[in-house]
Specification:
This protein has five helices and twelve strands. It is of the alpha/beta class and 229 residues long. The chain has one domain: Formyl transferase, N-terminal domain (Rossmann fold, 3-Layer(aba) Sandwich). Strands 6-5-4-7-8-9-10 form a seven-stranded mixed beta sheet, sandwiched between helices. A five-stranded antiparallel beta sheet has the order 1-2-3-11-12, with no helix packed on it. Helix 1 crosses helix 5. The radius of gyration is 17 Å and the shape is globular.
């Protein structure tokens, strides 16, 4: 197999994918809840420390407060209600809205639904999870449930993971992880707060790596390339 550049901006050579997207990315955010992660990314974009702008936010439920956060800062907010949309329609409407907004990179941000990633977005969908995958991930592991499980298992450290998405929950090549110690007196809420502090660093870092063209995925493993001279 030779080298080719796909329409999605991925350079494919002998089975290796080099994620090559515009340096100022257009992000599409998928969320189901309060939108804290959206707010973090928006604030960093506004401050100039994120090489991206948020072009749209899609919520899986109409009462997701993240949609209101988006409206307040002038970002288009779209509802694709998982509870009322038939299965195929749900997946197709999300994809079409992202295409209509000319999205370069999709960022799941507390999105509690499985979205089937279409071929057009392969290698262009990220998720952030509040644990050190592959542990404490999969169906049912979200929010405070994750931190309760970490404490119940007696783990001495936790953290967060940014990974590329495939069509399984919390699965796909890992791009960035940040770790913190679990303290003896941690509660689920206390641990969650400290992990979220790391999420606010990890997600922008991951997006900036992609914007800089420094991410290569080979056989399901991510390599971070050195900065350009």
């Amino acid at each position: 197999m030779g080298t080719r550049e796909s329409a999605t901006g991925m350079i494919v050579a002998r089975g290796t994918i080099l994620i090559s997207l515009p340096k100022k990315l257009r992000l599409g955010i998928l969320l189901s809840g309060s939108g804290r992660t959206f707010q973090n990314l928006h604030d960093r974009s506004a401050a100039g420390s994120l090489s991206a702008t948020i072009a749209c936010v899609i919520g899986s439920r109409p009462d997701a407060f993240g949609l209101e956060r988006a409206r307040r800062v002038g970002v288009p907010a779209i509802v694709v209600d998982r509870r009322t949309a038939p299965d195929d329609e749900f997946h197709e409407r999300i994809a079409q809205n992202l295409i209509d907004a000319s999205i370069d990179l999709v960022c799941m941000a507390g999105f509690n639904c499985l979205w089937r990633v279409p071929p057009a977005f392969t290698g262009r969908v990220l998720n952030i999870h509040p644990a050190l995958l592959p542990e404490f991930g999969g169906p049912g592991f979200y929010g405070t449930r994750v931190h309760r499980a970490v404490l119940a298992a007696g783990r001495r450290e936790s953290g967060c993971t940014v990974h590329f998405c495939d069509n399984e929950y919390d699965h796909g090549p890992i791009l960035v992880q940040r770790r913190i110690p679990v303290m003896p007196d941690d509660t689920p809420d206390a641990l969650a707060a400290r992990v979220f502090e790391q999420e606010c660093i990890a997600y922008p870092d991951a997006i900036n790596l992609i914007a800089e063209g420094r991410v290569r995925v080979d056989a399901g493993r991510v390599t971070i390339l050195p900065p350009s001279a």
